[in-house]
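hey so u asked for the seq, here:
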Amino acid sequence: MGTAGLWIVVAFALAFDFVNGFHDAANSIATVVSTRVLSPRLAVIWAASFNFIAFLVFGTKVASTIANDVVDQALRLVGREIGMVAHIERDYARALPRVVVPHGRLTQVLVNILINAAHAINDVEREVHRVRITTRADTEFVAISISDTGPGIASEALSHIFDPFFTTKRSGLGTGLGLSISRSIMRDLGGDLIVESVHGSGATFIALLPLPDHATMRKAYLQNRDAAVRRPLSKRHTVLVIDDDERILKAYARMLASSCDVIMASDGQEAIDLLSSGSSPDAVVTEIALPEVDGRALFEWLRRERPALAARTVFVTSDATRERYRSFLAETMNGILTKPVSANSLWSALANLVSQRPTSSRPPPRE
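ran it, structure tokens below
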């Protein structure tokens, strides 16, 4: 297949993408490209890129967020593809201050760096490759660092790495614009993108996000609160919410009342009992740290008994509980919200879940 034919396939897949959900379309691109043009490893990175193009259309609004959650979003887009060539390690700081950023633009930067890391890793043989994401904060900035075990950047190239059209990649793997655009985005946000590298020992890119003042935080809160009120889902859905705090359950019910029927449970066992007795929600929002049967155990039950519903489950954590479930949260591809949960973040998570193709959450009939 020639270049023109490849782009015809891509255009068709993207059209299919916006009609039927971008994740499946991107995977179809990977199938065609991997069998006709590129190696499977490079093809899945192509697919991740097209996943991200569709995501950007819906993710450019400014919002107050925690950097760890944006990293998780980027990894949900490309984590599976990165995982094919390297181990992914997350080293998140606890209790990070919130930042005010356009979620989609920051995700664009992180996805670009992650895909670059995957490209770099393919250029050198090592027994084990790793991509490590670290978050830290001081009194001025939140820093997101992404390190890889690729060949690193030669000293003579380091000073040009952010120049437009400059690239160290093999022919056909890049335009040389990604890092230039990414640094421009970070500087537009009041931060910066910097690089550290020792040739032969990998590279580290650090995205710096400025801490907002009180007025900026308040403006973002009011904008997102008003947007959440105006953001009903396209059709009415049923959501199972689980938390051992009755006040939080009632808060969820108030947030979702305009477009959802809410089923409430106080722990994982009560949720299992409801599902076993015939309840069939479209999505689940569950606190992970629950008495008796916690969110992790509930998720394992869902994976066995309601796999479609397991894929439409969002976990809620707090700074106090995140560390206890760190390894589980690092491995899951499901959405993760951090308390206090805003109406906007809850709507966003549910909109992403219910936009997936409808699949019955009831178990298959037993023969």
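The chain is about 50% helix and 20% strand. The CA atoms of residues 193 and 278 lie 51 Å apart.
lmk if thats what u needed
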